[in-house]
User: Fold TspO and MBR related proteins from Okibacterium fritillariae.
Amino acid sequence: MTDRNPDTRTNGTASRATPGRSASIGRDILMLVVFIAISFAVAAIGSIGTAGNVDGWYATAEKAPWNPPNVLFGPVWTVLYLVMSVAAWLVWRRRHSVDTRPALTAYVVQIVLNSIWTPVFFGLYPAMGPAALWIALAIIVLLDIAVLVTMIRFWPIRKASAVMLIPYWAWVLFATTLNAALAVLNS
Assistant:
């Protein structure tokens, strides 16, 4: 008679695999939370950078005719940050089968550039005037490139992750046009 209890077959290895698998799932969930927390920390930095400035100098600045209403930015960025986090997490989950370091390094570079842009664009304008808009434009152009590099690095590891970044890249390219227009119109 064979023992059908999965916990006692193969010298009990099945029962030992279960806690390891639970730990792996727990680690995966923790890392997803970490990726999301990093993205929302960047969003928080952006909120601090915009505080008082959206209704201040930005409200009276000349803007591009295609500039969307301010109320649109928060929801769009919220969705983009969530999708970015999941995309990076999916790449991270492949770390045991491929070298994900270059891809995740590219991701970190773009998230750092993202975190710098808002405080420079909104926060420095009162002190520096139009020069802040031009500095911000240089940063966002670097961000455009960094997001593209991240997508290229993600592609061979997990194509879905690269595709998930396309809306983010499109939005950053759109934001680049808004930044450029503001810099030109307000100089």
